[in-house]
Amino acid sequence: MIIKFIMLQMAAVPARPPRRLLGRLGLITALASALGLGACATQMPAPSQADATRIAMEWPGTTVETLARGRTAYLDHCTACHAAYTPDAHPAAVWRKIVAEMAPRSRLDHRTSEDVVRYLIASARR
Fold first, then answer.
1. Fewer CB near the terminus (10 Å): N or C of the chain?
2. 113 shares a domain with 63
3. What is the pLDDT of residues 23-54, one digit of tens each?
4. Tens digit of each residue's pLDDT (9 = 90 or more) over 46-77
5. Claim to verify: residue 95 and residue 115 sit in the same structural domain
6. pTM (predicted TM-score)
7. What is d(CA 54, CA 62) in angstroms, rounded to the nearest whole number?
8. Residue 88 C-alpha from the chain's centroid
């Protein structure tokens, strides 16, 4: 749908100097990117009290706020280089290894990495 919109916009552009065309294409590209990033955030499940209660058996003291911090960190750090994978994209047991491998690249400290792992595992086990 976005590609169709872009093609229609490009077809409507009369012959202009390249600078003007690039400005319009840049605006369309930025709009498409913003729409795409917004869609990623809405696909990531918000943590619930049930998630916190379930994961607290493995990590005592886990709260909805802990899981929310993990979700925010995941969306802020991990999507800087690639699209966000939904928590159910991998089995819960695999997320710890993935985050451990990626944490240095995304500059996650230990606490933030743990929050991300808790969020992903809790959401993957729904």
1. N
2. yes
3. 554 544 444 444 444 444 458 999 999 999 99
4. 999 999 999 999 999 999 999 999 999 999 99
5. yes
6. 0.67
7. 9
8. 13
CA distance 67 to 51: 8
Domain count, the chain: 2
Rg of the Cα atoms in the chain:
19
Domain containing 66: what range? Answer: 45-124
CA distance 79 to 7: 27
Residues 54, 104, single domain; the answer is: yes
> Which of 126, 106, 38 has its CA nearest to residue 116?
106
Q: For residue 75, how far is the Cα from the chain centroid?
A: 4
Q: Please choose, from the candidates 126, 38, 123, 118, the residue with its C-alpha nearest in 3D space to the C-alpha of residue 70.
A: 118
